[in-house]
User: What shape does this take?
Amino acid sequence: MNTAASTIHSTTAAPVLERSEGVWHAAWRRFKADRVGVVALVVVIVFLVLIALSAMGLVARGWQKEVGVPNAPPTFMGPAPAAATAVIEMPKGPNVDLSAIDPLAPRYAEWEERAKKLGSSEPPKAQTLPLGGDRLGRDVLAKAIKGTEISVFVGVMAAVVATLIGTLMGAVSGFFGGKVGDALEWLYNVFEAIPSILLIFAFAAVLGRGIGTVVIILGLTGWTGLYRQVRAEFMKHRGREYVRSAEAIGASVGSRMFRHILPNISHVVLVRMSLLVVGFIKAEVILSYLGLGVSIDQVSWGTMLSESQAELILGYWWQLVAATGFMCVFVTAFSLMADAMRDALDPKLRGLE
Amino acid sequence: MLLSIQNLSVRFRMGKSGGRMQYAQAVGRAVEGGGAGPAAEGVSFDIPEHRTVALVGESGSGKSVTAMSILNLLPDNAERSGRILWQGKDLLTTPLAELQQLRGKDIACVFQDPMTSLNPVFTIGTQLVEPLRRHMGLTGRAALEKAESLLHEVGIPEPKRRLAAYPHELSGGQQQRVMIAMALACEPKLLIADEPTTALDVTIQRQVLELIGKLKETRQMSVLFISHDLGVVGEIADHVVVMRHGIVREQGPVADIFSSPKDAYTKALLACRPSLEGNPARLMVIDDHIAAQGEGAATAPTDVPQARPKDASAPVVLEVRSLAKSFWLRTGVFGKREFRAVRDVNFQLRRGHTLGVVGESGSGKTTMGLTLLRLHEPTAGEVIFDGRNLLTLTDRERQTMRRRIQVVFQNPYASLNPRFTIGQTLVEPMQIHAIGADLAEREQRARVLLGKVGLDDRAFGKYPHEFSGGQRQRIAIARALTLEPEVLVLDEAVSALDVSVQAQVLNLLKDLQDELGLAYVFISHDLAVVRFISDEVLVMKDGEVVEQASAAQILAAPQQEYTRRLLSAVPRGWVPAAARAPLA
Assistant: This one.
């Protein structure tokens, strides 16, 4: 190799090298060609922007304000007809003078004077709201936007937690196998053997309510599917020649696992994670509906659905429609995007272009 | 005339770019300036009845596309033009329903890899009976009996029992025999065999070739045999068609092609396979030949200088003493059974020398090679490297020893990380072992090495999928060289390559050995290749070394029956009938 060393010194000027299109670039190019995928991506981005604005307090800040009359109908339906509120007939004739026996009577006039000085600040309540109002007269649109923020945040964070747990354990179990793998398989079997909803209840009962709790519950119960898939991929890849080659040049175990193998199975993890997001959003809705989800002073799609149960009997359907509509659009767009992503990232499909 | 291909050209739509459809021409040469009309020069050849016609060429020469277009087994984006006349009828205009009647019945196919061509979840019997039911109208017992007789015909022992076997219970050679039996099921008039022996060992290849030859005689059918190896083709074909870059370079009877090839490319293909006769220092590669032809100087392969003898007193770098490796197989619930993959291997390897290791698959040669690197933990024995036993080193010491003994694997498509650029692949080992002061120096070294293995600088930023098999193998060699090793284990390093590319890589290995004084452990199933590159040869069978001698000795006076069998399995190409020696 002495000759090589001498050539190194003789050629000092390193030419600028062009780098070829990487796998991610190629995947993005394929993704762009998928029209449905691009539309879905745009919808998801719109939602994300909305969530960001809501988190910064720029929109839907006052979702708790009672801006409309209770159960105000949506604008396109027009105001609700005035209902006959007087159930008990008002007494006829003049009021009876009680001042003789009322010890507070002398102060009535004084109080009236004082009351006149204070102006009433009761704002006028809107008769209709864009997407209607709930039983307290809160704007359903603002609630839905705020609910989107919380539901999607919960879904994404829980998916991240589940993915981290599943990937790490799957990698260890698949790469090492043997006793370590057996131990992790036992853990997996224990988690799989318990019906998932029961497991969620158990965690929820122990941990109490709140966003953080929901994230942890869903993360701790949802990693199993991803774990199995990552484990299978690691088992497949650990015997591949490129991993063997890395071992032969002295690459450490960690480097082989996470620098060599992980990028090659990242498409599996990514797609699985996006499916988890969808699943967890729905799971959060169920949890909140059952009263085990986010706390009372917060709103999510699940709490909205839970409230609408009582409203529906009275014919106030708009809260239900708003929550399900937002959820349907986001979940569908997210699923379609994940599907397009899977097609774009799957190296097996390469060569058909 | 059974089949006549006239002026065939095939191109693939590659998607639109800038509003115009882009095409890739696979067969035939396109008219200048594009256009949808017929190609300027297409592929034409005939397959007469009861004859074997061979299509020969390197990967990418369009030979498989030509064969697959006969039955329109091409992907949807293919466009064919020209004429393919099957008994006077043009198959290009035949509707699909009629083609499906032909497929499997009159024209049958055998593909390269029997492991992937057989469905692993069905028994051999089920898979054999299906075409019999569909095309021959046989039912139940009759179909099973027919299937049994087919298995018997292709030389599978105990055919009745094998009908109930699953594909994984058969060896590679047997699987390919089953594939042939399936193809023969409906008594085809033409058998298309697409590289049927490329995935097999030379000894199995020999058996399959003999089987196809015999069946052609007894069945009175024609065969279209596709291969990249002229040596194989010479043994089986009556008529040879040589293709390159989608056009026919030369065609004629096999005797003419072998005794007086006219085209430079044909000559080059003939010369680039290492043979058992003569031992040149270098193999002729295609470019050498074409270049020589261009200058008008007809350099015959005999002018090539003979290999010069190596320095027999060079220091010993690697010594192996009674190396053994066992695997434990589970039997029953708690039982274990020892499987001795490698037993009692001893050898010495001198600096600048090459030790060849030959054997059929399953003989333990790869396990032995990987044990040297401790990619498998050996069960017993010593590997003395530079005076120290590699097998008793601590992890830290092992890391430094790793630098000095490196490996190149068989499959160039699998041995490079697809998510790393070539530059990253080459720099990584230097980073691990802290070779070179900083990244710039390492990159500079990597570039020098790329030059050394015959790749240009632009390869540095590219990804593995942009390279051909031969180029990838060069990159794998360059990666092994980044650590400046003294011993290189080459595990079937050229077996997956076309013969022409194989010649280039073999030459490169020889050059590197001369320049850097490397010692090689060269593992292969092909004795001709081993003999070309090796000084000493180990013949392995069932985990044991059955013969150990210098390369010349092995060839001149093989002591073991097994060695003689390996020798006779090496394809010799076409040999005049008078000179044809009876097979040992």
Chain A has one domain: 26-71+128-350. Chain A touches chain B through 34 residues (CB under 8 Å). The longest helix of chain A spans residues 140-176. The radius of gyration of chain A is 31 Å.
